Fold this sequence. Notes:
Helix 2 runs antiparallel to helix 7, helix 3 crosses helix 8 and helix 5 crosses helix 7. Helices cover 55% and strands 8% of the residues.
Amino acid sequence: MARRKINHDELLKKLEYQFQKPELLDEALTHVSAPRSSGKSYQRLEFLGDRVLGLAISEILYATFPKAPEGELSRRLAELVRRESCAEVAIAWDVGPFLRLGAGEAHSGERRNQTILADVCEAIIGAVFLDSGYEAARDLVERAFKAMIEAPRRPLRDPKSVLQEWAQGRGLPPPVYTIAEQTGPDHAPKFRVMVKVKGKETEFGLGASKRVAEQAAARSLLIRERIWREEEHGTV
Length: 236
């Protein structure tokens, strides 16, 4: 029995792209569990799309931030190509209803699975690349990732690294972190950590682990010294 043809018009509107070879989009939306997939799934397109996405984002960042050093560009790239970012794009495209899944996967909510959504995002990028070339794929990436390029979802740098670089830049010894207090039961401890930078007042941070508490302490010191602004970096 022939497989029912799915109308992709709504998805194509969101992609702002029309495929010359619609079978590429079909493949990009097909999970390996789908019936009658004949072994074809989005996996190969995902492999290709991952590389195209990295190149496209790198080129866009290079043009968008002409004064940014290599380290900042690398951090921005890593943030944009991570699984969560790709899944966010797939959700914006609303690819879920168009996925071809096996019955078990469909009933277990895999249309909302972040890993699958991220893979399909990259597969669609790969499909556009094969369909029309790099420029078309790059334009798709630029449209889809524009908001995240302009406003990253997470701080690009962690507080401890920033504080250490700030201290080194002033010829100061590295910050020193000390556990000031540990409370709570062994299975759910809470830490209060203090950080000291030579010549600066001590700051404190709280967290469910030493690492989180250290980051919180570093963040507090950065904000107090006006290296970071609280409205941008005031939350963990």
